[in-house]
């Protein structure tokens, strides 16, 4: 039995590009012996008081902790347990306002308060495979007027690759707002191409992830 | 009468470097005719459900909105009003886990849902003066092992300068964790220098901000 962890950070359910691409990846990876754990931060974000609660809770005697401290410490252990119990990871996170998902940042901040993931310790999930899906409303490539305005993907990769030490493959999809933005009308054919390419890439990566887990389970 | 807006995002009260530097800036700017509005996100973060509530609330008839939608829309208007009513701005925001403050990101996301600050509209506070204080536990300069790991300051500047169109002066303070981190012991003299320089710069910028508001009020 292998276990796949999926994190969603889109605040949309219907019409979310990251969710659609992640759905295809999961469908391509699916096997009878693969269980899936879902942490849906878009639908159920962590409380904004959890992080400080988990940071300061340990300095307070257990019977004097505030409700926020108790909740923060409990949630930190829960999300750390979820990662530790999984063999592979899918992170489906949009770029929002040229920056990171606030809910994914809150999740990382909280995770790193757990002693098992504390800065300075070796990542307990180092070397495990992960797929990062990033959807962006606009275009941020070298030719785009807003080249350099994607302040999210670099940090996502930093945390997953350099801090958590996962083996990450990145699946990006740009121009997702073209269909609903009149000023982006001329970009719609490119947007459709981008989406089809990201979906195909997700399906490939679902199959490669599944194959890798099969080999690991047989080893 | 001029009005100064101060935003704090440090989750610490005692021992916070951004709060200390901002205190000095405010003290140097203080005048009898200057009122100060404080939005303390570190002490009282916005609820993590507010943003999605404010995004989706307008698509729901007013009498059918969820409590999160009502709260999100109310908070968005409140924080937009605070900015509009101010003549100058201080943002005191740490770098956390190589990235942005989750609470500051939540504040920006929510702010931009208010129609007056909506993407595509001209910023209603364009040209007003601001000071951005960023504290960082480590060092991120060209010689540092983690050069390039500051994924926060670039986004902070992007939002304040390019999106809100404020005239921003940046006050950075690096190595703030040196005093409490044994492995950083050799960096403590540099850390003390950095702090003294940031404090002095904050006092200068408090005076220049105060002078600018005086001239504007007299004009």
From TrEMBL, chains A, B:
PANTHER family: FMN-DEPENDENT NADH-AZOREDUCTASE 1 (PTHR43741), FMN-DEPENDENT NADH:QUINONE OXIDOREDUCTASE (PTHR43741:SF4). It comes from Devosia lucknowensis. This is FMN-dependent NADH-azoreductase. InterPro entries: Flavodoxin_fold, Flavoprotein-like_sf, FMN-dep_NADH:Q_OxRdtase_AzoR1. Pfam families: Flavodoxin_2. Residues 5-163 form the Flavodoxin-like fold domain.
């Amino acid at each position: 039995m292998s276990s796949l962890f999926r994190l969603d950070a889109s605040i949309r359910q219907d019409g979310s590009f990251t969710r659609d691409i992640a759905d295809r990846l999961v469908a391509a990876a699916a096997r009878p012996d693969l269980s899936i754990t879902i942490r849906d931060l878009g639908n159920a974000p962590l409380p904004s008081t959890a992080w400080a609660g988990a940071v300061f809770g340990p300095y307070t005697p257990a019977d004097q902790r505030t409700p926020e401290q108790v909740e923060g410490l409990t949630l930190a252990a829960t999300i750390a347990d979820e990662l530790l119990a999984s063999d592979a990871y899918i992170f489906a996170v949009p770029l929002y306002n040229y920056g990171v998902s606030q809910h994914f940042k809150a999740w990382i901040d909280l995770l790193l308060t757990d002693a098992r993931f504390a800065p300075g310790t070796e990542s307990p999930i180092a070397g495990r495979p992960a797929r990062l899906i990033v959807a962006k409303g606009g275009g941020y490539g070298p030719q785009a007027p807003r080249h350099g305005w994607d302040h999210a993907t670099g940090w996502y990769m930093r945390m997953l690759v350099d801090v958590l030490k996962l083996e990450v493959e990145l699946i990006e999809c740009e121009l997702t707002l073209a269909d609903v933005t009149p000023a982006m009308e001329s970009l719609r054919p490119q947007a459709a191409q981008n989406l089809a390419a990201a979906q195909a890439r997700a399906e490939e990566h679902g199959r490669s992830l599944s194959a890798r887990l099969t080999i690991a389970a047989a080893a």
